Structure formats: structure tokens, C-alpha cells
Amino acid sequence: xxxxxxxxTAIALASVLLLAGVLLIVWARGSLSVDExxxxxxxxxxxxxxxxxxxxxxxxxxxxxxxxxxxxLITPPQLDPDQLERIEARPPLSDLGLAVPPKTPMPQDxxxxxxxxxxxxxxxxFEAMGRNIAISGVQGVDLDKTCSFHDVAWPCGxxxxxxxxxxLRGRALNCFVPPETERFAxxxxxxxxxxxxxxxxxxxxWATALPSGIYSKAEAVAKGAQxxxxxxxx
Length: 234
Description:
Blueprint: H1 2-32, H2 43-51, E1 111-116, E2 119-120, E3 125-128, E4 131-135, E5 138-139, E6 147-149, E7 152-154, H3 156-168, E8 172-177, E9 186-188, E10 190-192, E11 195-196, H4 197-203, E12 208-209, H5 216-225
Parallel strand pairs: 4-9
Antiparallel strand pairs: 1-8, 2-3, 3-4, 5-12, 6-7, 8-10, 10-11
């Protein structure tokens, strides 16, 4: 009798579970079905709304004054303007530190000409291809000039021309000259490759800068380094 009662109870419970499962399936199908009478918005409209950029306005930040750090530990020194002294700038250690001289404005008809086989006639003048050229912006050393270094005299004029002759030998200079040759020497800027001839002569002490020239700093370097006519006999 007990076994029969248990079997009937199990059958009844299984029937209830089966009925609950059927009802759950029917309810799920009804929730997933779409009512054809309800209009739906096209997906393109939703995409258009989501793609619309949002304009953001960023407020301008106010600059706050600089904050003093460790004011009680670090204080600026008290300077008296009357005790300050302005000194001259230190000249460069070599001619490599010299600024490139600005280009001198030349007449409209002057052109840059390559002059071959130059021959020095003084410490700053030379002849080449029928032209007499004087390096502009510099003052030459007279051939008979004698220099003194620590009470020792030596013929610096002859040495200056000899150095210029050795520097020109076998080379060609680019010079701004007029289209026609002149009987007398003309002052013209010249260069050897990218090296300015006037700057080389003055910075090495074999010429001096004209008061209105552009080589005053180069002359100061030569004097400070005791080079050329400012130095010992050579």
C-alpha cells in the first residue's frame, strides 16, 4: 500500500512539472513575438542620432600667479645697482668662434670672379689675371716695418708678406670685382672656398682691421693670443 501511494505521488508531481514546463514555453514564445501593428523606427535613424557629434565647451583656465617655493629657506639676494659693474665680453678662444662677417653691398655691375695663380705684392694685396686686388676691410703691414716683442725686434713686415704669399700659392680666390680691369689696385672682398681672406689675415695677426671695417673682433683675438705681428719673432 505504501509503494502504491508513493508511485501515485511521483506521477502527480511529474505531471505538475510537465504542465509548468509547457506553460513556460508558451509564455516565452509570446514574449519573443513582435506585434506587426507597432511601427518600428529604421536603424538608419538611430545610427544618425548616435553619430551626431556633441559640442563641448571647455572653459578657459585662469592663470594663477607663480607660487613661491620655500620662501623661508630661499630668498633672492639683495643687490645694489651701484655695486654692479659691466665688463667686456671675453673674446673667442680662436678664430673658429668668430661670427661670419656680413656681406658688404657691392655695385650692381660687380661680379664674383675666380682669380687663378695670385701673387702677393704686399701683406694684403696681390695680382692675378691682370688685376690688382687689395683685400677690403684690412690694413696691411708695411714691408719695412719692424715689430718688437719683449724688447726683441724682428722684421714683421717681410714676414707678413711671406705668410700671405705662402697662403696664396697654388690657389684661386673668389673676389667681387668690376667687369673691366683697372690700372690701380681696387679693394674687394675675397674668399678661399668658404674662408674669408680678410678674416684669416686679421685673426692670424698679419693685418689690422680698418676702423670702419668688420674685423675689429678678429684683431682683438690676435692681440690676446699674441699672434702674427703681435707675438714673438717668426
